[in-house]
Design brief:
Blueprint lengths: L3 E6 L4 E8 L3 E9 L1 H5 L6 H23 L8 E4 L5
Parallel strand pairs: 1-4
Antiparallel strand pairs: 1-2, 2-3
């Protein structure tokens, strides 16, 4: 059985959740952009970005599971943003 990976990205001004099966199959990939929020400041404001990630993450994750048609207990591993490269 191929592993199913929940992937979460929240490093800057986008919140993204993907669910992958094995090495090549994307079951779900969703992104919410904050670009319009930060545009008025001339760049990303980390405190605002962090709060928006918290606002978006639960709903985005729920939608990803629905789109992938799997349950949380089917996840084999979780991959998350650790920091900028």
């Amino acid at each position: 059985m191929e592993p199913i990976i929940l992937s979460i990205e929240t490093s800057c001004d986008e919140t993204a959740v993907a669910i992958l099966k094995g090495k090549t199959e994307v079951l779900s990939h969703l992104v919410v952009s904050q670009i319009d929020i930060h545009k008025i400041f001339g760049g990303v404001v980390p405190e605002i970005a962090a709060r928006k990630h918290l606002n978006y993450l639960n709903n985005l994750t729920e939608k990803a599971f629905e789109e992938a048609q799997i349950k949380p207990e089917e996840i084999s591993a979780v991959a998350v943003t650790y920091g900028p490269v």
